[in-house]
Design a protein that fits this description.
Helix content of chain A: 55-70%
Shape of chain A: elongated
Largest interface: A-B, 46 and 46 residues
Number of domains of chain A: 2
Strand content of chain A: under 5%
Largest sheet of chain A: none
Radius of gyration of chain A: 21 Å
CATH topology of the largest domain in chain A: Tetracycline Repressor, domain 2
Order of helices and strands of chain A: HHHHHHHHH
Oligomer: homodimer
CATH architecture of the largest domain in chain A: Orthogonal Bundle
Structural class of chain A: mainly alpha
Distance between the termini of chain A: 49 Å
CATH class of the largest domain in chain A: Mainly Alpha
DNA sequence: AGCGTTGTTGATCGCCCGATCAATAATTGC
DNA sequence: GCAATTATTGATCGGGCGATCAACAACGCT
């Protein structure tokens, strides 16, 4: 026993300590959900007294909201960044559906679901949720509009279609949080659905997959 | 002041009291979500001492789970019951999409979202959630299969398609919990999407609506 | 070396939670 | 009418929560 019960945390620059606390909150949220972000748990994870967490935050609602935004914005930026390397809107939309449903981000999905319910009692969080939803919708709308300009898609009201696609993705992901079995080929069926919405030809977003995928 | 601070609740038959407690829990859940179901709050709403609520339940997790099932099963039964009066699978599917997205059941949607997050910490609830999802999926799958038999739809893997439609509905409803504005014509876009999935002709599930709807 | 600044502590307050259980009162069965 | 049963109470326990704040200690500055 050498390191754990250290008497007092070394003094650090405020920005550095704040970052450590934010990171502790982020880890807790990804492992156990947004409700796990409590004063004492974050403090313990950061190796710091509980009062220090409060010192760096106006209140816990704010830390929950900030943690939500940090996690979700990182995902959006990461995925949106990958889109730039793809040649056509059709490719980009197919990639989006494929990536967001591949099950590799279930922890982030859980954060979204937590945020939807917590947002009813945490106004700061609710604001962040709407903001991040707008960001995702913007990415999708951009792809849909580019597809129309390129003659690949045909639909009116691109904003609504983008919202719709986002809602579908969220719903399917939330579903897989609870019940991952029994659903084959999520991607293929979703591709069909989106083809119907954006007016793309059947099969253009994704061919029937070979068993191995 | 006549009724409120009554000294002692009149003694009732166990079944009757249990029903009253269940009803109190149901009202609380619909008004303020599943997390509002606490020993003391349910007791207060039922006009009873806190100990009595515990007396009728093994623990609070069980009451939360039972309340979830009561609320959600009622909705499924109600909507499924209306399907019988509709002539064709196409009509039934159109009605389902229309009804489940009409925004008149946002309180039930909130219960679903609560249950998805609470289910991670309440195993009894998680079991009920999976059970009720299966029920909804069964209803949808029945409609899709009838549609295939009737030659109105054309798709393989009806189970997956049913799951997919359910996921979309849940996602769009959850979305409208947070952000109700900015999305026009949810029903029309969803109809397009589902048409793409089940292989129905474009417009067969819903014509472009007139502005008044 | 001395002093002010400020990062840091941990005890403390008030609140709500679920669960428990001895005491109490209404009802039933005899 | 009396005893056994059981519905009901409300205080109590242990625990977690967010917030607060006086005290402490490390650092920069002169």
């Amino acid at each position: 026993m050498s390191s754990s019960p250290q008497k007092r945390a070394v003094r650090k620059a405020p920005a550095e300590r704040a970052a450590e606390i934010a990171e502790a909150a982020r880890e807790l949220a990804l492992e156990r959900g947004l409700p796990a972000i409590t004063l004492r748990r974050v403090a313990a994870r950061a190796g710091v007294a509980s009062g220090l967490v409060a010192h760096y935050q106006p209140n816990m609602d704010a830390l929950v909201a900030a943690t939500f935004t940090a996690i979700v914005a990182a995902e959006t930026d990461e995925v949106a960044g990958m889109l730039d390397r793809l040649p056509s809107p059709l490719d980009r939309l197919a990639f989006l559906l494929d990536t967001l449903l591949d099950g590799s981000r279930l922890d982030v999905t859980a954060i979204w679901v937590d945020a939807w319910t917590l947002g009813r009692r945490n106004e700061a969080l609710a604001v962040c949720v709407r903001e991040r939803m707008d960001a995702w919708q913007g990415v999708l709308q951009g792809v849909v509009e580019a597809g129309i300009a390129a003659g690949e898609f045909e639909t009116s009201d691109t904003a609504s279609v983008a919202w719709q696609i986002l809602g579908m993705i969220d719903g399917l992901n939330a579903q897989s949080l609870v019940r991952w079995d029994g659903v084959n080929d999520r991607g293929t069926h979703l591709a069909r659905a989106v083809e119907g919405m954006v007016g793309a030809a059947r099969g253009s977003l994704r061919q029937q997959r070979s068993p191995e995928g």
